[in-house]
Amino acid sequence: xxxxxxxxxxxxxxxxxxxxxxxxxxxxxxxxxxxxxxxxxxxxxxxxxxxxxxxxxxxxxxxxxxxxxxxxxxxxxxxxxxxxxxxxxxxxxxxxxxxxxxxxxxxxxxxxxxxxxxxxxxxxxxxxxxxxxxxxxxxxxxxxxxxxxxxxxxxxxxxxxxxxxxxxxxxxxxxxxxx
Length: 179
Hints:
Largest sheet: none
Number of helices: 8
Distance between the termini: 37 Å
Number of strands: 0
Order of helices and strands: HHHHHHHH
Strand content: under 5%
Number of domains: 2
Radius of gyration: 18 Å
């Protein structure tokens, strides 16, 4: 990372931290662990920037969220390993096959205020943005599947999804600031 850009990146990191914390909470990570996951993501991003491997085709925020996404996955994998060591039988189902990551997550009640806030923000999105966001994030359809389902070119579907995520993030951040 060039010295002349260091302050700029520090400012971008500072601005991105609240969004990354929210992303970690939405992923179901307990509040006491969210800061660690965000710090891991920021440390990894800093290392990539120092090696000259910053965002190539995406915005800085999108690139950083991608890194955060993988750190969230790493967190749940680590938790799954820890749980399987303490309770070896819970990592296998009745036929001995590995249970999926979602099935192995600890049962817990999500923060009702957070769930309500997310619902309100999703409901406030325009119908097309809400639909494409739910197809991708809830049903886990790929861009190719979404494009086929909506009869759109993949680039258009990708652009709509990016726009929907941006609007969701902006509205969610604004709703949290008001409280």
